[in-house]
Amino acid sequence: MTTEQIPPPQRLLMGPGPTNADPRVLRAMSAPLVGQYDPAMTGYMNETMELYRQAFRTRNQATLLVDGTSGAGIEAALVSLNEPGDRVLVPIFGRFGHLPKEIAGRCGAEVHVREVEWGQVFTPSAIERAIAATRPKLLALVQGDTSTTMNQPLEEIGQICRRLGVLFYTDVTATLGGNVFEMDLWGLDAATSGLQKCLAGPSGSSPVSLSPRAAEVVNGRRHVEAGIADGSAPVGTRIASNYFDLAMIMDYWGQARLNHHTEATSMLYAARECARLLAAEGIDNAVARHRLHGEAMLAGLRGMGLEVFGDVVHKMNNVVAVRIPDGVDGDAARTALLEDYGIEIGTSFGPLHGKVWRIGTMGYNARKDAVMPTLAAMEQMLRSAGAAVVAGGGTGAAREIYQDARLPAGARA
Amino acid sequence: MTTEQIPPPQRLLMGPGPTNADPRVLRAMSAPLVGQYDPAMTGYMNETMELYRQAFRTRNQATLLVDGTSGAGIEAALVSLNEPGDRVLVPIFGRFGHLPKEIAGRCGAEVHVREVEWGQVFTPSAIERAIAATRPKLLALVQGDTSTTMNQPLEEIGQICRRLGVLFYTDVTATLGGNVFEMDLWGLDAATSGLQKCLAGPSGSSPVSLSPRAAEVVNGRRHVEAGIADGSAPVGTRIASNYFDLAMIMDYWGQARLNHHTEATSMLYAARECARLLAAEGIDNAVARHRLHGEAMLAGLRGMGLEVFGDVVHKMNNVVAVRIPDGVDGDAARTALLEDYGIEIGTSFGPLHGKVWRIGTMGYNARKDAVMPTLAAMEQMLRSAGAAVVAGGGTGAAREIYQDARLPAGARA
Per the database record, which ranges form the Aminotransferase class V domain (chains A, B) (predicted)? Predict the structure, then answer.
């Protein structure tokens, strides 16, 4: 078999993520490697920690990368914080709430769930009632769930958790860098993310931050691997995973530099560059940019005659779901859009599969010249599929948003 | 804070890995992303499976990548194959034997260990006696342990395992592509690897292969995540990790393409290119190349007057350990080599720390023009550190090896 060098087709990725990486992130990944304890490498690690403190809006010392996709960060947080038998409360408002439920269950936690209909979010008082009823050690609540496009308000929930003595964890994979998130101000104890959404990188590295309170819980279960260092006896219930043991991962990223794994150097280069670009743009500017292009996409899709799914007031800036018009085969239409226009939009999970498409405007693709071609192509695609569509309605409505809007000076596009 | 674009220093990485990546692998990683279910992407996934079947020398359908460093593959194999209470036998001949012991213990397995002195390997009969005494479900045996440079012979052990009904797992992170490995011929049930040693890639992706027998064990514990697909009830004891659930990962890489994670696209590009380059060179040629340059390095270090650590008959092709001469501060000398010559050699773990350096010749750096500069620089470094050294003895002895040797026509250098 002769296999060629990677020759990927040019795609404009306008689904719910992964999205196209910023070319500067791709370039960073092609930089030469250095050794894992090279002063250059440990310097990059320290810079990366500081850059993600800025991204998460936190002063948490324990801000680092877990080597794996965003699910790796979620599992690391949950397996390190929860001991078997601990109670965990998971409010679920889409597919990505099922994930912490599932992971916490596999850790042996006693998992309690609350659910709202897909397309809705929880009120703070509903969360408070659920905490009062279940008395969990940890609340695991996704911020943005791309399966429904909903952005769960978190502002008031940290205070509730502090008052009731509950650790508060959130997954910000889908939201970080494109929606307001304030780790310290909102009282979060743990947050995990990924690069492939608003951060404009590839999947494969998971930024994680732990509050001092959460780090203390994890360090209470510290247990150094035999063969690495002697003299420190295990304390607390040993964490059920070696790879996801955040106590050991903190030792690797901290002063001790105890070997735990060989850091995925190229992915670290990518993660560093993602956060560097975010810091250079300014987080507020990046959020404003995602809001603008998200509004343009929303207006464009409506202007074309499509119906938006879910509670638009709580929609994430970076993704929108629209109902597939009657009579249109959603997957066939998506395939046509990919083959004829090189543009990818997203299908859906579970109860929404076949009913809605999900369209993203995030990271490098939160740009006018990504939004406008997508709307133009979708109009043609819908017409070909036999759907009623307002000619020029999509791009026209988006253009009106752009005419009225003004981005902050520092925002990228 | 203003942080610059990644500006890594040029390093020649001659430690036990990570090593410099082949420039073609770095280039592959900078290719544009495609969507995770794009026909191009699923095509790359299928090609990657086939390329790693060639690398592992197997026909196993279940040959795929786990998204993480090599430890991720190890943990995925052990947590997916072992249920709590299962007996696991771990023969330990260096640091990397402690790792499966530790991981299997965290999975709740009843772990039995055997140990030989660092620098030695196990005989097949010693393994057979240990199996007879402990009756494990699984034998976990590292092939090459860079902490001691030993290459554990595996040829006869698969037969023993089959006869005694034991699953046979090995970690080939440090050996694959540079030392003979025959997954099917030797009767392995599971093997896991990494890219950062002989495969000339960065850390961050772990190729894994499961025999049909091992895949059956894993699939006996299959449990599909809620919110993804309905109708398939869990069977067997649920795997204690979601991220490392090889049953779900097989579904993602298989026909079903059930969403489990968002594949780390750039790392997949890297993994594919590593195995593509290996296939293009030919595995036998690649092993011969590693053997030649390993021999040249060994001869050169001895020619300089250094004493080699461990049982040289069982030394891996790609790494050698030498005793640090009396009176030389090993870490200070390594630092001088890095700062003055841009060359990195390795320190050591546990009982060998401060006693030996480890020097690698692997992947892209299994080349004459990596070996010779390293020997030349080490002579100067040793002289500066006040050690007795044979002037010109290192490069002279290596040159003799190169003069006598002839690489197969297809080998790279």
Answer: 40-347
